[in-house]
Amino acid sequence: MVFLTNEGASSSSSTCRKKYDVFLSFRGEDTRTGFTTYLYKALEQKGINTFMDDKLPRGEEISAELLKTIEESMILVIVFSKNYAGSKWCLNELVKIVECWKNDQMVLLRPIFYNVEPGEVRNQLGNFGIALANHEKEFKEKGNFGIALANHEKEFKEKMQRWREALSKAANVSGSHYQEGHTTYKSESEFIQGIVDEISSATFNQRPLYDVENLVGITSRVKDIMSLLDIESNEVRILGIHGLPGVGKTTIANVVYSIIGHQFEGSCFVENVREKSINCGMIRLQEKLLSKILQDNNLKVDIEFKGTKLIKDRIGCKKVLLVLDDVDNSEQIEKLLGKCDWFASGSIVIITTRDKQVLATLPKGHLIYKVKELCPYEACELFNKHAFHTDEPKEKYSELAELIISYANGLPLALKVMGSDLCEKSICEWRSAFEMYKNIQHGKIQEILKISFLGLSENEKDIFLDIACFFKGRNKDYVVKILDACDLYPDFNIGRLIDKCLITVEDDTLWMHDLLQQMGREIVQEESKRLENRSRIWCHKDANKLLTRNKGSDDIRGIMWCEPEPITVSLKALAFEKMENLKFLIVKNVQNSEELKYLSNELRLFEWSEYNFSLPSEFHPKELVGLEVSCIRLPKLFEQGDPYKYLKSIKLERCQSITTLPDLRTPNLETLDISNFENLTKIPDSIGLLDKLESLILSHCKELQILPSRLKLNNHFFLWNCPSLEEFPELHPKTKCLGGFAVYDCNIKKWHSTLRYLTKGIIKLEIRDCENLEKVLEKEKRKRWRLILDWFQILPESSGYQELICKGDILIDLDFWSENDLFPALRYITINDSNIVSIPESIFSLSSRLKGIYIRNCKKLREIQNPRLPQSIREVKIKECPSLLPESRSRLLNEFGKILGILPNRVSDGARSDILMDLFDDSESESESESETENYEILLPGTKIPKFWKFNHQSFGNSISFKVGCKFPKLAVCVAFRCAEERIGRHHIYVHVSVNGCKQLFNYFSHTGTDEELWLFSKSLGQLNKPNLSEQNQVEVEVICKFGYFDHDDFIGPPLELGNHTDFIGPPYLDTDFIGPPYLEPGNHTDFMKWWGVNVECICCPQKSDITYLPLPSDKNGCGSSSVLNDTELSPFQPVFPTSYGSVMDCGAFNNEGDLGNSMEPTNTGFEPGLTNGFDFGLAQPNLDLGSCVSGGFHLGSSSMAHACVNDDSDLKCGSTTEENEGILIRLLKSLFPCFFICSNAKLVPFSK
Predict the structure, then answer these.
(1) Which residue has the higher pLDDT, 477 or 856?
(2) Is 93 an active-site residue?
C-alpha cells in the first residue's frame, strides 16, 4: 500500500485543527451509488470524519462553502473515474484541492484511480483528453456561460491550463489503482479496506496530542522552528530545543512532529527519555524506536550497544523524523542515535532538554532553539482560558488575575496549573490562594521545577541556593569572586546553571525566574523547622527573630537582614558567636545599639553600612572579598597580620575619626569607595600604587586636601564635593582608556599636564565649579586649552558612544583639539548653560564620526563660526539661544541641507526650480540596510527657511496625505512653530503616519512654546508596518499637538542607550522624581504651528480625485513642489478654523519668489467665511461660493494646500453669475499654471477646454 503524501507542499503550514479528516472528490454519475458510497461508509465506521458532497446542487462553479470545506480537511481524496474530467465542477474542485495541498503541509493528497489508468489522467489521454476537448469546443461554439468569446478567450485558456496542471500534479502523486478484472485485490471490498486502513493510520499520526487551537503562543514558536528546519532543503537537520522547566518544550516539539511527520518514510516520538531510561532502561527505548520506524513489533534487543548498531543499520537508509523528549544526559542520545552521523538526506532529529550542555556533543552545525516565556499578552490569554474559560477575566477578578499572572512571570506550566486550580472559585478563595502561592509554591509546579535542582552537583546546588537567597540581581563578576573564595568554582558552575536554564545573565547581572527563586528558598526552608538549623536566612522577619533571640548554629551559611524601614535593635555582643561558618552577612536599615564582640573570620562578604562601632578586635577575615561598613576604628582591621589578598571591594562611609586613610594592605583591591569622611585630609600614596584598582570614588570629603602624588587609573575615577582639594595629581603613563572619569564641585586650581593621557579614550567631558583648568601642549606652548566651566566627567565606555560635554561659563581656544586629534572617536557635542559668545569652527572638526550637536540655554551665544558639518552628522539641536544671529542659523541649515542631499542649483528669475529633491540619499555613507533605519533631525530658533528647500505637500491643518508605490521612500517633515507665550507648560507634538489605514507613531517632539522654532526630521517610511500593500498605498501624515506640564525635553542630547548603566556613579541627567504619564490637555492644539510640510517621493496622480493638482514640469511624480528662492521668514499665521478649510493637502504646490509671508498669508477675497460649498484656495481662506453648479465640491487642491496667492481679486465679484466667476478663475489660473487641471463633475478637464 502506498504512503499518503504532501510532497509538493510549500514551507507554509497551519497549526489550526482541521474540521474534517477526509474530503471526497468524485464524479457522481460514475461512483456515487457504488464505490464512493462504500468508501464513505467504511471511513465513517472507523470514526474518520469524512465529507462527501452528495447534497449540494451541481453547477459549473463551486460554492464558497465548498471551497472552505476543502480548506478545512486534512486528507483530500480524489476518485478519478472515467467521466471525472467531463465535469467542470470536478475540475474546478480539483484545482482547489491541489492548491491546498501545495500550500499547507498539514494537508495530505490521496488519488484513487478507479477503472482508469494513471497515465490517462497525467497526460490527459483517452476519456480525459476527449473531455477537455469537448469543453474547449463548447466554449468556442456557445461562449463561456453566455459571455462573448472575444471578451473571455484569454480567461478560458488560463482556466484550461489550470485544469491540465491540476490533473498532471494530482496524477503524479502515488495513489491506489483499481481496474476491474485486472487487479491484485480479491474484491473491491478488500481494495476499499486497504484504503481505509491507510487513511486511519495517517489521521492518527496527523492529529497532535494537544488541541492546537487552545495552545497560546504556539504558532509563532512553531513558525520559528519550521524556519530553522528548512524542510525543503532536504538536508539532515539536528535541532535542540531547550528552556525552563514547564516552558512548553515538549508541547512545541509535538506540534512540529504532527505537522511534518507524514512527510517522512518513518517517524517516532520518544517521550520522557529521562524518566523512562531510569524506570524502563535504554533497551526498551531502543526497541520502541525500531518498532515504530520499521512497523515491526517483533524486533528485540538484548544489549544496549547492539541496539545502537541495529538502529543505525536498519534506519540509516530511510528519511526519518525522530524526536527525543526530555533528554538530560548526552549518553542517552549516544545510546539511541550513536554519533548522529548516519542519517539519510532529509532526515530531522529534534531533542528537547532542560540542559543546553547535553547538546554540546551533537555534530557540528546542529541547531539550537531556546523557548522563551510567554509575553504578558500571551500569559493573560493562557491564564484566562484556564481560570475563566474565556479570553477575558470576570470583572471582579481582574485585579487578582493580574497579580497571579505577574507572579507566574510568563511560565506556561504555572499559568495553567493556577488557572485550573482557581476556576469557579470565589473571590475570597482567590485572595487566600494568592497569599498561599507567594509563600508556598503550588505542589505541581514545584514538582516539575525541582527535577532540575535534583540533577545538580553539590557545588551547583550551593551556588543555585546562594543566588536564590542572596545574590539575584547583583553583578555577576562580583558574585563570582565571592563564591570563588568559598571554593565553589563559580566560573564553571555558573555556566552549568545557565545551560540548565536555572539562572540567566543580563547586562552582567545575575537573574533567575521568580518561581525558580521561590523553589530554591522553599528547599532551604525544608531543611529544618528551626531557623537556627537552616543554611540560609533571607527573610527580614526570620533574621530579626534569629538574632534578637540570640539563636544560631554552625549550620548557618549566610544571613540577609534587610528591613523595609530603618530600625534600631539591641543585639547582644555575642549574637554571632554560634555562627562560626557564617560566610555572608548582609544587613540594611538596621542600627545596633551596642558594639559586637564577635564576628566569624570565615566571612567572605560583610555589608552593614549602618554599623557605627569598632569591629571586634579578633575579627581578621583573611578570605574576605567585600567590605561595606561605617565604623569608628577601621585602621585596626588592617594593622596586623598578613595582607587581605582576597579583598576586592571596600566601601566606607561616615568614619568620622579618620584623618588619614590607613595603608589598606590589599594588593588585589579593585574598588575603593570613600564617602562622607568629614575629617579625612589625606589619601596615602600607597592607594595610588594599587595595580589592580579599577574604581576609585571619593565623595563628600570636605576636608580632603591631598591625593596620592601619582594615580594609576584603570577604569573609573570619581571625585565629588571635595572643596578643599586644590591640586590634581600626576597620572601614571600607563593610565588606561577610562570607563569613567568625573570631577564635581571641587576647587582644583592646578591640573597636572599628564591629564592628556585621558583624552584619547575620552567618552564624556564635563567640568563644573573648578576655578581654572589649563592645559599646555608640549610642542606648542602658545596654544592653550582654557576652560572655566562647571564640571568634568568621562562616562563609561559601556554607554556605547564617546561624548564631549562642556557646561558652564566660558569656552575658548579650541583649535588644538582638532589639530591634535584628541578625540578620534567623539560622536556627540553638548554645550549647555554657558556664557559663550562664539563657538569656533574647529569644534565641528573634532571627529569625523560626529553624530550629534546639542546647544542649549546659552543666552549670549551670537555666532557659530563657519560650521562645516561632517557627513556623519545626524542631529543638530539648538534651543533657548535667543542671541544667535540669522547668518549662523542659515549656515547651519545649509550645511545640514547638504548632508541631506539638498544641493544648490541656479534658478532663473521668475522660474520654478526644476530640482527634483531627493532629500535623503545617503547611499555613499551608509549601506542600504543602515540607510533604511537612519534618522536625521535639526531644531533651530526662528522659522526662516533657506533657499532651494522644497516641500511638495504643505498644510496649515494637521494632516497631509499622499500615495506611494511598493518601495517606501524616506519622508521629510518640516514644522515651523510660532511663539505661544500665553501658554504655560509644554506642547507635545506627536507625528503619526497611517499606511493603508494602519496608524503608527512616527516621531515625537516637545516644544516649550516660548520661542519660535523650526523642526525638520527625516525618517524612512520603510521602518513602519505596511499592511495590505499594493501598487498604490495611501499614506497620511498627522501632527497631533497636546498641551501638558511634563518637562520631557528639558534635556536635549544624544539618545540614551538601552541598558542599565549602574557601573558609574554620578548625578543623573534627568529628574526622575516624576513617574507616570504627563498631564495633557484634551484636544489638538495646532494654533501655535505656523506651517508645516513634507517632502516625499510619491506617485500622486489626479485621476479619481475631486481635487485639483498643480503639476510642475520638474515633478516626475505628478506632485507639485515648492522651493524657497531666498532665505525668508514665515509670516504669523492665523489659527486654523475647524471644518471650513479641511485639513489634508493631497498634492499642493506654490511658487515662492521672495517672501514666504506674501505667498502664505491668507488673502482677503471678500467672500464670507464658513461656507460649506464652493471654491477653496487651500490657504486657510474661507470658501468662495460659486453657485449651485459646483455645490458638489470644487476646490483647488486640498483645503490645507499652500498655493500661489494673488492679491488682486477685483475680477472676482460676489454679484456675478457662477459661470462668470468660474470663467474668471479659470482664465486667471490658466495664465499662472499652464499645466493646471481642474475637476468638474468627477472628470478631469484641462484648461484648454
Answers:
(1) 477
(2) yes
